[in-house]
Design goal:
The protein has one domain. Helices cover about 25% and strands about 35% of the residues. A 5-stranded mixed sheet has the order 2-1-10-7-8, with no helix packed on it. A 3-stranded antiparallel sheet has the order 4-6-5, with no helix packed on it. It has helices at about 30-45, 80-90; strands spanning about 1-10, 15-25, 25-30, 50-55, 60-65, 70, 95-100, 100-105, 110, 120-125. With about 130 residues, it is an alpha+beta fold.
């Protein structure tokens, strides 16, 4: 079993937030890894819902802020909807997925978590006017 650290980073590589999950399989698809990350962050949020969500993708009816999303009201989130939205965001280049020192371009790629236990997510922000 592997201990994996999920890290949110800026485009320059500065860590914004991170958390670790123990007991993950040694090999897993990138898709399953993204869905695991989203399930964990939603579970943490749902344990104590607030008006601010710091997650990979924007929940429905939330507004983007500097470091997360402002919820219209504190409410429980559906992790599967958030995970589906994360897959769509990945396909539209909404974030980069980095495993070790390589960028993952396909969610069906299998990842060796023993060799690369650091999983980084870099959210991409569209440029205004172009």
């Amino acid at each position: 079993m592997a201990l994996v650290t999920f890290r949110d980073e800026t485009a320059t590589g500065r860590a914004l937030a991170e958390f670790s999950l123990p007991d993950l399989p040694e090999r897993i698809s990138a898709r399953e890894l993204v869905r695991l990350r989203v399930r964990e962050e939603v579970a943490r949020y749902n344990a104590a819902p607030t008006d601010h969500f710091r997650g990979l993708v924007k929940p429905t009816e939330a507004e983007a802020e500097l470091n997360g999303y402002r919820m219209r009201s504190a409410r429980r989130l559906d992790w599967e909807k958030q995970a589906d939205a994360a897959e769509v965001a990945f396909g539209r280049n909404g974030f980069l997925l980095l495993i070790g020192d390589r960028q993952i371009l396909d969610l069906d790629v299998e990842i060796d978590l023993i060799a690369d236990p650091i999983v980084s997510f870099v959210k991409l922000v569209p440029l205004v006017g172009g």
